[in-house]
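Sequence in, structure out. First:
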Amino acid sequence: MARSHPGTERAGGAPTPAIAALAGLAWGLAEATFFFVVPDVLLTAIALRSTRAALAATVAAVAGAGLGGAAMVLFARADPALAQAAVDGVPFIPTRLFDDAAALSAQHGGLGILVGAFQGLPYKLFAVQAPEVQSLAAFVGWTLPGRAARFLLVVALAAAVARWLGRRWPRGVVVAWAVAWAAVYAVYWSQMSR
């Protein structure tokens, strides 16, 4: 009989913290560059089953965002026009959002990443504009609280809703998660398509 190792046990179909962390790292990196669905979707899905695994995924998603964001800053440093054009080609990122991100960065410096996270501004916009306003080290430094704040908030909210709803309608937890994200993206993408 195989023994389980610490950190590999599963609770109710939840991924292990190690698997969750790998998924979070990959999604955080992808979304920081050219993917257009936020890591919050994955993190909240994991939080429905395991807060511990969701926290591991959150830490990894922040690290992935830092790596992807750093790559985008370096890309923008090497060829600003190409970097901006590449991000402009990502679905559901209208050109007007570049101005919104630039205004936040001008007004708040690195804190603009945090403010933008709660305004629906894609992180990658701040990354490709970072060489104009801050160093790579400052950008990565602001990435940590800028990404972690929202990720931790949505994980805590998803875990709380899953506990509450799970006692009343256990099968409805995943349905509620899917409906909530479908609604969020239906509204967001309709606004971004204008």
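Second:
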Amino acid sequence: MKENKTRTEAITVSAIMIAFAIAISAICAAVPFINLPFGGGFTIASMLPIIIVAYMYGTKWGLLTAFVYSIMQMLLGFNTVSAFFLPGDSQMVWWRAIIVCLIDYVVAYTVLGFGGIFRKKFSTGKALCLGSVFAIALRYIAHIVSGAIFFGTWAEWFFTQDGFPAWGQVILDTFSGDALAIVYSVIYNGTYMIPEIIITAIFACFVVRIPQIKMRDEI
């Protein structure tokens, strides 16, 4: 009986948190200066609600919730996703497009379920803060992998754009091929993922004051 009650509570809380995460993400997507022209953009801790679920109910439930969130993000990003398959400059070979979707959406958002990995090791504040950094860093790595493999051809163009710092040429003189693609992906994705990590970690330190956020039984 208790297990059923806990599961029902977890489903309800997860649904609410997914809705919060989507709402925050949608609001931030409407703000031009925090979104990059070729994909990506930081938000005001839109992933924190998913990380809170992972902290409250454990990693298994957190991963399930994060997976559902990843599917929602892919559906909401339909215009971007569909561009990979439809004729045009963004079109890819179908199998590459599928892999990009899997890495940049399914993997990148599902790993947020690891945000509760420190829940039994530290106090709530530290666990949420460290969990946020860890989970979003995993998402950052997923984007680095995807960017280096599938978008690395943009590297030379990226570092030679007007307004790019002078060290862009230093990078081009130092790296080439796969190494340049990796450096490009680290820098490009870092422009929005690093601020995301910092913002979420800061917010995580404050939300612990909400009495409802406490560790429940793992599901």
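Remark: The domain at 2-207 is CATH 1.10.1760.20 (Arp2/3 complex 21 kDa subunit ARPC3).
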